[in-house]
Amino acid sequence: MVDRLANSEANTRRISIVENCFGAAGQPLTIPGRVLIGEGVLTKLCRKKPKARQFFLFNDILVYGNIVIQKKKYNKQHIIPLENVTIDSIQDEGDLRNGWLIKTPTKSFAVYAATATEKSEWMNHINKCVSDLLSKSGKTPSNEHAAVWVPDSEATVCMRCQKAKFTPVNRRHHCRKCGFVVCGPCSEKRFLLPSQSSKPVRICDFCYDLLSTGEMTACQSARSDSYSQSPKSSLNDASDEEDDEDSSD
């Protein structure tokens, strides 16, 4: 069915509409063979709080952006190649339900659908697209993924030293390797993680020590279940605030 739609006028028109919604600041999305599979609003668990984001699933990429005017205008476009994506379901807890992790080498995060049926449809379609891409290319699934950042609300003290309390002066930082919320003194070092940046990025002392000795896998965070814990904030906030991908911390 995807192959049949690839060069159809209706598909070309739908993709053009998505391009226009992102405006001149967005990347061109129309290329031969690309098909728009589906779209919808998902709640993305950002660093500060959950935020509504518009997502578009194509047969080769996943695109999302901030909602400025629903169905008419979006900004801060992000494009994720599906070949690099793996997804994992998240258990329901509190207000955040019907969620799963989207994991890539450069960035990983949690999203939540409005219903269990919607979640199932998104996950099935994403998995089908990834499977088809890997089958055609002969590549193997990516086994390296960026850590999912622990939301600020989950840490009142540094998750490494367990002593430093966070205040307006003593700010929270995130280790780019494990995703933990850490204090400044526990994350003064930088390390080159080529999949995430061309420049050395902030990591905590614990991960730095392991990376420096070559024990890279030991500092991977196993905190997938923690992202089903609900920060006490609205899930319908669609304000055009800076997302965590724009944060330097």
From TrEMBL:
PH domain mapped to chain residues: 35-131
Region forming the signal peptide: none
Ranges annotated as biased composition (Polar residues): 221-237
A matching Pfam family: PH
Compositionally biased spans, kind Acidic residues: 238-249
PANTHER family assigned: PLECKSTRIN HOMOLOGY DOMAIN-CONTAINING FAMILY F MEMBER 2 (PTHR46280:SF1), PLECKSTRIN HOMOLOGY DOMAIN-CONTAINING FAMILY F MEMBER 2-RELATED (PTHR46280)
Protein purpose: May play a role in early endosome fusion upstream of RAB5, hence regulating receptor trafficking and fluid-phase transport. Enhances cellular sensitivity to TNF-induced apoptosis.
Keyword Plastid: no
Domain of life the protein comes from: Eukaryota
GO cellular component entries: early endosome membrane; endoplasmic reticulum
Chain positions covered by the region annotation Disordered: 221-249
UniProt membrane topology term: Peripheral membrane protein
Name of this protein: Pleckstrin homology domain-containing family F member 2
A GO MF term: phosphatidylinositol binding
InterPro entries per UniProt: PH-like_dom_sf, PH_domain, PH_domain-containing_F, PH_Phafin, PLEKHF2_FYVE, Znf_FYVE, Znf_FYVE-rel, Znf_FYVE_PHD
Subcellular location: Early endosome membrane; Endoplasmic reticulum
Main location: membrane
Domain FYVE-type: 152-212
GO term, biological process aspect, one: endosome organization
Keyword annotations: Endoplasmic reticulum, Endosome, Membrane, Metal-binding, Protein transport, Transport, Zinc, Zinc-finger
